[in-house]
Structures are given as structure tokens and as C-alpha cells.
Amino acid sequence: MGRLFWKLFAALFVAFFSTGVLVGSVVAWQHSLPHWIEASYDAAHTSDVCATPPCAPVVSPAESQSTPSPALTSGERPSAASPTAGFLFWSLSPQVYSLIFALSSLFAGLFAWAISQPVRLMLGHLKSAAETTVVTPVRPMLSPSHAEFTELGEAYDAIALRLQNMVKSQSKMLHHVSHELRSPLARIQMAVGLLMQNPKKLPTAIERIELEALRMDRMIAELLEIFRFESGMQALQMTAVNLNSLLSVIVSDSQFEREEAKLQLHLPESSIWVNGQSELLQRAIENVVRNALKYGPQSGWVNIRLHQNEQTAEAVLEIEDEGKGVPDHELEHIFKPFVRGSHTAMIEGHGIGLALTKQMIEAHGGFIQAVNLHPVGFMVRIHLPLCPSTPDSSTADNQA
Known about the structure:
Elements lengths: L2 H47 L11 H4 L18 H6 L5 H38 L15 H51 L4 H30 L7 E4 H15 L5 E4 L6 E4 L1 H18 L6 E8 L4 E8 L31 H11 L3 E6 L5 E8 L7 H7 L1
Parallel strand pairs: 2-4
Antiparallel strand pairs: 1-3, 4-5, 5-7, 6-7
Helix pairs in contact: 1-4, 4-5, 5-6, 6-9, 7-8, 8-9
């Protein structure tokens, strides 16, 4: 059965047995109480009537009652002088003690098994989860009558499933990282080999080695940042952010980086404010804008629209390009690390930018989605909760 069962059984048995003996004593005492009251009344009445010595002797209650109480070991009733003494020193019959012992053992065993069995079941699943990566749900094995243990089993299954998904995700990420690092490492080895064959190519080789090292450093930094967001280690410094001003800065920076970029920014007349960390929001939106410029046609336009949804109290940002988009079955996967659309396989990239953007937007309480436009085009829509209160003028000036 296990140590837990026997510990519970001993504790419950003592409690049930003690309660049974106490209840039996109270019942027996209450059974004898009317006899004590009658005897006391007869004694008091006799003392009042018999004023002379020749009065007949008073018969005691024990002598007047020929049938003793069945709950007593002997056939005597407690003294009429003190009913409390009869209760305190009451002696139950062996048959009553045997009945109490049997019932206490039965109920203690049932309750101990009902408590220890779900605990032992969950302990076994915890041990199996520690030894293997395959976790078996424990909730279906628990009886619906155990409401508390059922909730505990559901919580355990949720945690086990999340840990299992995290392990799979980390294994998959390590596989992708090792695959993505092979390419820059191979190019570095080629540059070193060319340099050894022809020392005159030293500037070109050094430039290539530096470029590949920067790419690896940027990829590793982005992966670490995704991990911090997924694990909840990234603490946000929330302030009121003016999206109108933030988008104007992003468009200005993008046009400075690429003079040929064709960007159209559509902003509402009034400023839209959200709670968030300005630097992270800027990086998240910049990733989407850069992707639109990168994967869209060179002569195509990128439209950026910002509006406010009063019903859902959200700021909605839409970034459209005139590219081919991605197949419909890939839309919900492009926000995962190292996942890229099949139409963009020939364009340089690691597939981390959108995954990082998704983590940043969700950390601010929003969400992001991708939609294919018809007949041609691709749109990324970002939803962010609005700031509960509009900042004052001084704050607005500082944000602008």
C-alpha cells in the first residue's frame, strides 16, 4: 500500500475510534440520566414524607430496577449522587468496543485509500516523466468524484504538456541553429583557405570573415532574445508610446537606409497611444517593414496604415506590400523561428525576425497575423491595446 496509506490509516483510525468511544459513552450516559433523575426525585420525596423513625426504608433505584442497562459491563447503574461520574467512568461492553473497532478500521481504510491512491498515481507519472520524454496524461485516470485531485491532475497535465513542447521546441531550435551556423562557418573556412592559397586576397578574406561573424553574432543575439521572451525573463519598462510619432521615425529611418524605398504612411489626425517599451515596439515594427521592402518587388509600394478600433480598444497597424506573399497553409507558421515562406527560399535570411516580432508584440498584450491579399500582395496586421488614459500635453511633447 505504501507508507502514505498507513500513515493516513493510523491517523484516521485513532480519530474514528476515539470519536466512536466518546459518542458511545454519551449515548450510554444519556440512557442512564432518566433513572438518576427518578432516583433523586424519589429520595427527596421520601425524605419529606418520612418525618418519624418508623418510616419504611426507602428502596434505592438500583434495587427497584431489575433490568440493568445493556451498555454496562456490570449490572449496576451509576450512583444517583453524581450523573457526571457515571459519564466519566462509563464502561462500554466488549461488543460495542468490537463494533467501534471494526467500523473505524473500515472507514479509515476507505478514506486512506481514497486519498493515497491519486497521490501515488500522480507520483508514478512524475517519476515516469523524469525518466522519459513521453508524458502520459493523468487526468483520465482519476475518478470524477475526487474534484480536488482532478483539478490537480489537469494542472499537472498542462504543465507536463508545456514542458514537453518546450523540450521539443528547444531540440528543434538547436537543430536549426546548428544548420544555420554551418553556412557562415563554411564561408569563413573558404575565406581562410583562399587566404592561405593567395595571401594577396587578405583584405577580401578579412572582409568576408568579419561579415559572417557579424551575421552569426546577430543571429545568436536574436535567438537569446526570443528565449528571454518565451521564458518570461524579459522585463518591460512600460510607458505611454505615441504610435504616430514612432511610425514617422521608422519610415524616416527606412528611407534613409534605402533611398529607393517607396513607403506610404497613412496616419489618423489624432495621435494613438499605447502602453509599451518604445525601443522594443520600434524594433518589432521595423522587422515587418524591412521584410516588406526585402520581399516585395523593387518598384513596389509598401503601405503603412494606422487606425483605432473603438469596439475592441485596440490600435491596429497594417503593413502591406506588393509581393507574392506565402502559401495559405504557411501563414500561421511564418512566425516560428527558422520558418520561411517557400517563395522566399532564394532570398538571404534566417527566419528569426518575424518570430522575434511576435514575441515582442505578445509581450505588450497584443497579437500579430499575416494575410494574403488578392489578386497580389501580402499584409501583416498588428493589434496593440490602447493606453487607458491619454497622456498630458507635457508627456506628449516629450514622446513626440
